[in-house]
């Protein structure tokens, strides 16, 4: 049995907002000012990185990690007040944008309110508090600024659920992106979901990919980490387009029917720790953004991507985005508009399954169609640095006229059609 799902979730585009870096002000008001622009871009769900006060004990860097939560029931004063957050949520809702919070259930800061008031909520090793433990029970030494919570304690479970309910009731938020969801026992999530939905039906996104039963206990979507790794490999020439076939078979065999994942070329971890989109994907970046928007999941825009973000945003310091002329706004807006208007691209059971289009260059060209209730898209991607001439042989069900999403031309798709593709060229066609 799948958990409840808000009816707006399958067609949505997520936008991750690093509040600290998003605006010159670095606060909620700075986010609120840009809501009309995000609406025009096509954003449906605004995900705020953690909004709580950050611990000082064992802090990393000048400002600390947003994921070192000092008080689950308070707002980081650098961002504003609780009332400022409420105003932001209300303003987002007025723009028909949903808002979800980043939730960090596995650990707190070392000087957290809970640790002072409820030390029994925490894991102990030989009687001592500990850094978080990985899925094998081994301490994660690099996470030295946070302290592990013990989900063997029923009182902690109750407190965590009540606190998650608090933000839904108090601020009318629409769900959570859950940090390291798989380090928390899945039976907790099965307990939490109905309690959250008793307040309102929420959207739940798990930052985890290794627990298929998350889709049964609590979560509507999980993280496409494998997708990110495979696409980076293809972009770097370490794998070719055929790797996507292998990946899709693995995902379809691993997760329950109707599953969907979050796909991205950038997020806060990738950008801060591994590199910008240009560093990670080079000339292939736009092709893989097109794939993220048209494959079987939900796509993510990381703040600044619509501006061609060319900087790594600091994780522990203030390095505000240097906004310029929003060079990629039209590119992403077209993809968002297509996703909204063409049901074939919706996620899970609400959309159409990926159907490969046979071609004579499948190690380089990834071509597919998706169809739902008469809506259809055709996507052709040259996932190589070579100029490629390819002959596609779609089935008769896919033939007919299509509009070019990235141009004014039309395409008459026939049973056999030859295309000349530049390196990393993408083509997207819609029948409506």
Summary tags:
432 residues; alpha/beta; TIM Barrel; Immunoglobulin-like; 2 domains; 8-stranded parallel beta barrel; 6-stranded antiparallel sheet; 14 helices; globular
Characterise this structure.
- This protein is an alpha/beta fold.
- The protein folds into two domains: 14-350, Alpha-Beta Barrel (TIM Barrel); 355-430, Sandwich (Immunoglobulin-like), CATH 2.60.40.
- It has 14 helices and 20 strands.
- It has helices at 19-22, 28-33, 35-41, 82-94, 113-117, 154-171, 186-197, 214-217, 225-236, 242-254, 268-274, 277-281, 285-294, 329-341, and strands at 14-17, 45-48, 98-103, 107-109, 124-125, 128-129, 146-148, 175-178, 203-206, 221-223, 261-263, 298-302, 355-356, 365-372, 375-382, 388-392, 400-404, 410-413, 417-421, 426-430.
- The strands form five sheets. It has an eight-stranded parallel β-barrel with strand order 1-2-3-8-9-10-11-12. A six-stranded antiparallel beta sheet has the order 13-14-15-20-17-18. The protein has a two-stranded antiparallel sheet with strand order 4-7.
- The longest helix is centred in the middle third of the chain and has 18 residues, at 154-171.
- The protein is globular.
- The two termini are 34 Å apart.
Brief characterization of the structure:
The chain is α/β, with parallel strands linked by helices. It is built from 14 helices and 20 strands.
Largest sheet: 8 strands, parallel, barrel
- What share of the residues does DSSP label as strand, in percent? 15-25%
Secondary structure tally, helices: 14
CATH C-level class of the largest domain is Alpha Beta
Spatial order of strands in the largest sheet: 1-2-3-8-9-10-11-12
Task: Give the CATH topology of the largest domain.
Answer: TIM Barrel
Structure summary, number of beta strands:
20
Number of domains: 2
Characterize the overall form.
globular
- Which residue ranges are poorly predicted, with pLDDT under 50 across at least 5 consecutive positions? none
Helix share of residues?
Answer: 25-40%
What integer value in Å does the Rg equal?
Answer: 22 Å
Overall pLDDT = 97
């Amino acid at each position: 049995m799948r958990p409840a799902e808000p009816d707006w979730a399958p067609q949505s585009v997520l936008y991750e907002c690093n509040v600290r870096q998003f605006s010159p002000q670095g606060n909620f008001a700075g986010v609120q000012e840009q809501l009309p622009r995000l609406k025009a871009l096509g954003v449906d769900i605004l995900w705020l990185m953690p909004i709580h006060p950050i611990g000082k004990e064992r802090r990393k860097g000048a400002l600390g990690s947003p994921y070192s939560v000092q008080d689950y029931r308070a707002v980081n004063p650098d961002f504003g007040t609780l009332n400022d957050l409420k105003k932001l949520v209300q303003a987002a809702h007025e723009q028909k944008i949903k808002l979800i919070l980043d939730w960090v259930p596995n650990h707190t800061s070392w000087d957290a309110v809970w640790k002072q008031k409820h030390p029994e909520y925490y894991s102990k090793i030989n009687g001592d508090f500990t850094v978080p433990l990985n899925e094998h029970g081994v301490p994660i030494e690099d996470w030295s600024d946070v302290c592990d919570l013990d989900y063997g304690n029923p009182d902690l479970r109750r407190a965590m659920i009540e606190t998650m309910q608090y933000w839904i009731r108090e601020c009318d938020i629409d769900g959570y992106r859950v940090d390291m969801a798989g380090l928390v026992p899945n039976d907790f999530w099965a307990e939490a979901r109905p309690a959250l939905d008793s307040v309102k039906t929420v959207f739940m996104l798990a930052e985890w990919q290794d627990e298929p039963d998350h889709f049964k206990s609590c979560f509507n979507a999980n993280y496409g980490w494998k997708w990110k790794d495979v696409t980076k490999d293809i972009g770097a020439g370490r794998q070719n387009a055929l790797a996507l076939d292998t990946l899709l078979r693995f995902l379809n065999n691993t997760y329950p029917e109707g599953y969907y994942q979050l796909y991205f070329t950038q997020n806060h971890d990738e950008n801060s720790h591994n590199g910008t989109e240009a560093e990670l994907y080079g000339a292939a970046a736009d092709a893989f953004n097109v794939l993220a928007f048209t494959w079987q999941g939900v796509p993510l825009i990381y703040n600044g991507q619509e501006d061609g973000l060319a900087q790594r945003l600091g994780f522990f310091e203030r390095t505000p985005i240097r906004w310029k002329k929003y060079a990629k706004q039209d590119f992403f807006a077209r993809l968002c508009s297509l996703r909204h208007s063409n049901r074939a691209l919706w996620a899970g059971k609400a959309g159409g399954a990926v159907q490969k289009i046979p071609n004579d260059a499948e190690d380089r060209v990834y071509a597919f169609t998706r169809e739902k209730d008469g809506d259809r898209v055709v996507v052709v991607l040259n996932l190589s640095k070579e100029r490629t001439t390819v002959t596609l042989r779609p089935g008769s069900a896919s033939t007919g006229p299509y509009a070019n999403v990235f141009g004014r031309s039309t395409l008459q798709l026939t049973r056999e059609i030859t295309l000349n593709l530049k390196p990393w060229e993408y083509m997207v066609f819609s029948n409506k």
